[in-house]
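Morning F.,

Quick status update on the modeling queue. The single chain you submitted on Monday has been processed. Sequence for confirmation:
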Amino acid sequence: MKGIRVLAMAVACFPAALLAQQPPAPAQRPTNLIVQSFRDFGGHYGGLLLAAFDSIPPSRYGYRPTPPQQSIGYIAQHLENANYVLCERIGGMQHRTGPKDSLADTIKATWPKDTLVARLRASLSFCGDAVARLDDATLTDAVPAGPPGSERTAPRVRELLYLVTDLAEHYSQLASYMRLMGMIPPSALSRTNR
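Structure tokens below.
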């Protein structure tokens, strides 16, 4: 009798024991992994650019290693403009412009450091809002590409690639300038010094 009870208990407990050994249900796969990757990459390089521009003294904004190269001020105004052009396409949004926006790039490049950095920061914020509107399913949608007024289109992901590679490329340029001036670029600082 005792053996039958033990057997009955084992049979009754066996399904519960099996359930306990089942692997947990797979976690819900995160959505928009591609857009999130672009957001992370752009945020990283945007942050490094702002840290670099913040750390360069205002008196050095006219610096360029050789006459044909862009000055630090020119890089800042170029990034602002490129960010707005690309992020308008990416997010289907328009940013408000003012009379100063139509000035020549060479004039904008000579603006005070505080103005250039504030305008760059605003353009990066605009881009953050544009990218936040995206999901992975919209990356193949056709968006305007090429010069204004052209009929060219491209997949949205191409413009997103342009944005993040432009940020990385110009950070690399600025980091090189900083080293030539005897400064340490933000990415070369230890995490405790950032």
